[in-house]
Amino acid sequence: MPKESATIKRIRRKLPRKYGCRIYERDFNLAIRFPHRKISQLEDEDMVLARESLEITGIEEISDKTVSAYLIADRDHLEVEVELFLDAVEEGAAAPVLQTLVMEESQKKVMIDNQVRKIVDELSREKHSKSVSTSSGAGGKVKGSYTLEGRGRVVGYRPGRKDTSFGDVAIVPTIRRAIQEGSFDPLRGVKIKPHHVQEKIYRSRTRTNLCIVVDTSFYSDSVREISTLEWIIRILLTMAYEKRYHVSFVSFSGNRAKVEMPFTTDVDRGAEVVDRFEFGGLSPLASGLKTGFEMLEKQRGDRAEIVSLMVIITRGKANVPLYPGGFLRRELVYYAKLLGGSTVNTLIAHIGDEEEHMIKELSLRANARYYKPPILSDRVHAASDFLENLGKGDEKGVVESGLKLLKEIED
Question: Which residue has the higher pLDDT, 112 or 107?
Answer without folding.
Answer: 112
